[in-house]
Amino acid sequence: MAGMADPVVVVQDLALHYFTRRGPVRAVDGVSFELLRGETLGLVGESGCGKTSLATAMLAMPAPPGRIVAGRIVIDGTDILSLSDEEVRRQVRWEKVSMVFQGAMNSLTPVYTVGRQMSQTLQHHRRTTRAEARRIIERYLELVGLAPEVINRYPHELSGGMKQRVVIATALFLEPRVVVLDEPTTALDVIVQAQILNTVKELKRRLDLSLIFITHDLATEADVADRILVMYAGRAVETASNEIIFGGRACHPYTRMLLEATPRLREKVNELAFIPGNPPDLLVPPSGCRFRPRCPFAFDRCTDDPTLREVAPGHFAACWRCG
Amino acid sequence: MPEEPVLSVTDLSMHFIARRGRRVVRAVDGVSFEIRRGEILGLIGESGCGKTTTGRLVVRLLSPTGGEIRFEGRDMAKSSRAETAAFRRRAQMIFQDPYASMNPRFRIRDVLREPLAIHRIGRTRAEQEEMVRRALSEVKLEPAEEYLDRFPHMLSGGQRQRVATARTLILSPSLLVADEPVSMIDLSTRAEILSMMKEVQRARGLSYLYITHDISTARFFTHRLAVMYLGRIVEIGTPDDIVDRPAHPYTRALIQAVCEPVPGRVKEMRELPIRGEIPSASAIPQGCRFHPRCIFVTRECRLAPEPGLVEVSPGHRTACRRWKEIS
What ipTM goes with this model? Predict the structure, then answer.
């Protein structure tokens, strides 16, 4: 596929550091990837690996004290890091790329109806009459599988799944090319999770979207993501198609161990595997390969920092043992 | 004669009165189960199904509005103060949130010594200190010196859940109620905590009530599984019964909804054999409580009295009158 479809997002050598009193925490430390048109890229890794930081960078809005210190992000032809704050607000955020933040469904304002808070976002970007705004909102509520009358409801009258749908509709109605979803199903029950995943897949097809789907759960990625990007300690360590990663051909030890630690319902096991140790402190990342201290396959060469290289067509890994 | 179960719960209910009596929330609505010595019973279901309330009732953090809880042969409702105190020692709980369940101003030593002080265990400080160290080593926090003087915020989520486990073990309980003990812990260490818990369980012959929404983990961690829906157990059996041969339409939908790390699913829509959303526990449907969401519903399911648990195979029971026809 690579080379044929053109990328809608290009990220090059991106670094986002948090400037704390103790020094810079290198949450994202030299990550490059592309998102192809119509593709869902699954971003996985343990908490603290930099997935959410990377997502905030995509909207050029790192949370303080974070700053993007290096790299380039081109979305739909626009180099977003070269723009002023005002230009980003007008031309990029929600226009080209929008985001479903983790836990956003619990950040809906309890005192406003769904319609009122959605139209605030809408009118921030578009000059519409009230009737027009209402039509747009109702249309998007329907698209995400909600009844149009939800427009008059307050958040407390909605279930978790319904609130998440409202948040997704709000991310979509300015017709962005790219949507970043950060753990959109994590706090939901299994059945609701599966329903939301179905909705996300359908929306992607109907609206011709490209998605970045972030979660710590590989099983969820297996369900939605065309391609997987595994992050560890601020770096991309492996990226490959769904078929390669879940078809037993992942090669980075971290990816493989993460897969083994993922429970499988329909397969009987007595003990699940786990990854000993903890991810490193990103104030002082280990030299060489950052997974080395936890890696059972580490050898001399791992004191040299491995970079992401193509080990098979379309399959990239940052490990000396691969390929 | 079979050994008496550690815990036996009969027709347990917990009805909360809300809005000054204008609404009754039937959080737990007629639940019966037993846990044998050395057994891990998993209680699974979606949020709001009453599984956490059931756990809280079992350790008496709440007093039930109906039904009976027998623990090691004694009826808890009729026990004396001294018996209740002893019970509280023998039935312990591990909470979901390891960040909220510990006093942030206590050092780990004090976290573990507090239950000893409450139950007046250990005559001297030295004796207590020895017990604290033993408990830490049992949950693999070694050497103890490394941890004794730390505060909870200096530990990872996994380490805190180990401390929470040590805090219960120090009282030599026979039953542990673990409410989503690993749901807030990173996937990479989840299995490590569960295998530690299982090791402790085997070594001490403990019984667990393991409450979770995560069926995949429950399958390998438990000996038996009970599926709850809207305040009731709708199916109970071995993990294989529940996962490979689910009889209740709700269990089937649950199993169907679980994602697995296997390729080839991206282009497919997942079929979910269930309708609508879970109703409120203050408006439980008449007849079979699952009927508005059931794809196999008949007139009888709506109108006839609610079905009780019937045997599907030895040890496997379900609360569906149509399980045979639909299987």
Answer: 0.90
